[in-house]
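FIELD: query
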Amino acid sequence: MRRGFQAAFLLLNLYLGVIFYLWVRQFEPGGAAPSLQRPAGVEGWLPIAGLMNLRYFALTHHVPTLHPAAMFLLIAFLAM
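FIELD: result
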C-alpha cells in the first residue's frame, strides 16, 4: 500500500512537471499559442511562499489568495 501511494505521488509530480514545462515553453519566442493554464499543483513546490503565507495567516487569520497550497503543505509537513 505504501509503495502504491509513493508511486502515485511520483506520477502526479511528474505529470505536474511536464504540464508546467509545457506551460513555460508556450511563452518562449516561437512557442505555441498560449492554450495551457498553469497547473495549480506547482504551488506545492514553493517552500518559501509557504513560509511567507504561514506568517501572513498567523498575523491576519486569513488564507492568502496567492499560493495557498504551499502553506497547507508546509502545515502538513510540520504536523507530521
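FIELD: remark
Helices lie at 2-25, 47-60, 68-79.
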